[in-house]
Amino acid sequence: MPLYSENFEKPEIAMRGHFERHVPSDNMARFYHLEIQPTLFGYWSLRRSWGRIGTRGRDRYETFATVGEALAASRRLEAEKCRRGYVRLPEQLDLPLASGA
Question: What are the tens digits of pLDDT across the range 44-66?
Fold first, then answer.
């Protein structure tokens, strides 16, 4: 299943994918996050974030001329991470915290 759809109508909305890998025997808990969004100059940016869960991690940005190139790069990275044992998590909603209980 591809990480992103090439048929989208609102390019101002970022496309995201979040992956995690847990290996308790090695005390390993890592995340990998992919995000595609348009730049101010008409290009497309692929942001990759990775690190230990609970930390800010590291970021790397790549810029592409077309959204198709950015999608191809994200699919390649998704396949690589899945081969290494990462699991894609469902999208998480940013819901407001309940006030009082």
Answer: 999 999 999 999 999 999 999 99
